[in-house]
Automatic annotation (TrEMBL):
Domain D-isomer specific 2-hydroxyacid dehydrogenase NAD-binding: 109-281
Keyword NAD: yes
Any single Gene Ontology cellular-component annotation: cytosol
Catalytic class of the enzyme: oxidoreductase
Family membership noted in the UniProt record: Belongs to the D-isomer specific 2-hydroxyacid dehydrogenase family.
UniProt keyword terms in alphabetical order: NAD, NADP, Oxidoreductase
Domain D-isomer specific 2-hydroxyacid dehydrogenase catalytic as annotated: residue spans: 36-312
GO molecular function: glyoxylate reductase (NADPH) activity; hydroxypyruvate reductase [NAD(P)H] activity; NAD binding
Record organism: Malus domestica (Apple)
Lineage, top ranks: Eukaryota, Viridiplantae, Streptophyta, Embryophyta, Tracheophyta
Protein name, per record: glyoxylate reductase (NADP(+))
Length: 313
């Protein structure tokens, strides 16, 4: 397999690079001055792409690689892969589900607690010496608050399980009601938002779910409501979110993802009811290594003509 060209468009994980280099001819365009020419020069040896949440494979890249057989994404979300083109050309696609579920769900709860209990703001209060002038103000209790979840897939269910341990009633929105779920179903996101305190976005990004959090949903969540986004930035109409937070029409937000990463709207920097993370949902050593093993396992399975471990297409 050493002669098989595997393109990794941007750096992702040194462990993943190391494991790929043991088995394949790993091509790293960021290490050369002329990236486009480099890809052109190797276009007939590249049979696989390793993408991630920010660099996938669009129709243009796929068209430039005539020998491409598989895209193995170092992410669970595959919104950066042109699935339609892959289907037309018979290119296989894999992702990294399950192994990151716990970390992403943990982070959703962490963000919720951070926003409601003002963990980041009160920590800054201590570091800046303000405590010496007086105690920190009262915050909002999490235990018992209703948690609304958009998307009751693997991650949504894991968020629900954790929130239940905080005695939170759970409600959800998804395309269809889940007959095996005990949680309250709302057929629209607006109804869900109007009936919960914490609204968590945990669905995949598709054309249908782009801007699923719009002005109407934000207003329904209201000045006591909190939005938690551990999905994708474009799930949220960010301009609407920023104006709602600045105007006090929304109670708070915990965000791990943004519309134009790594750009984060600067109006949010001054708001104490907002917690901002740099897209780190699956960002632990344990999980990233497990994801890397899945990426490599899928590529090995493909080139050894065995069943893929986690196929998407
Ligand atoms: O955002 C991260 C992922 O999709 O795994």
């Amino acid at each position: 397999m050493e002669s098989i060209g595997v393109l990794m468009p941007i750096p992702m994980s040194s462990y993943l690079e190391q494991e790929l280099e043991k088995r394949f001819n790993l091509l790293k365009p960021w290490t050369v001055p002329h990236k486009t020419q480099f890809i052109k020069d190797h276009s007939t040896s590249i049979r696989a792409i390793v993408g991630n949440a920010s660099a996938g494979a669009d129709a243009e890249l796929i068209a430039a690689l005539p020998k491409l057989e598989i895209i193995s994404s170092f992410s669970v979300g595959i919104d950066k892969v042109d699935l339609k083109t892959c289907k037309e050309k018979g290119i296989r696609v894999t992702n990294t589900p399950d192994v990151l579920t716990d970390d992403v769900a943990d982070l959703a709860i962490g963000l919720t607690l951070a926003v409601l209990r003002r963990l980041c703001e009160s920590e800054r209060y201590v570091r800046s010496g303000q405590w010496k002038k007086g105690g920190y103000k009262l915050t909002t209790k999490f235990t018992g608050k209703t948690v609304g979840i958009i998307g009751l897939g693997r991650i949504g269910k894991a968020v629900a399980k954790r929130a239940e341990a905080f005695s939170c009633p759970i409600a959800y929105f998804s395309r269809t009601e889940k007959p095996d779920s005990k949680f309250k179903y709302y057929p629209t996101v607006v109804e869900l938002a109007a009936n919960c305190h914490v609204l968590v976005v945990a669905c995949p990004l598709t054309e249908e779910t782009r801007h699923i959090i719009n002005r109407q949903v934000i207003n329904a969540l209201g000045p006591r409501g909190v939005l938690i986004n551990i999905g994708r930035g474009p799930h949220v109409d960010e301009a609407e979110l920023v104006s709602a937070l600045v105007e006090g029409r929304l109670g708070g937000a915990g965000l791990d993802v943004y519309e134009k990463e790594p750009h984060v709207p600067e109006q949010l920097f001054a708001l104490e009811n907002v917690v901002l993370l740099p897209h780190v949902g699956s960002g632990t050593v344990e999980t990233r290594n497990a994801m890397a093993d899945l990426v490599v396992g899928n590529l090995e399975a493909h080139f050894l003509k065995k069943p893929l471990l986690t196929p998407v297409a």
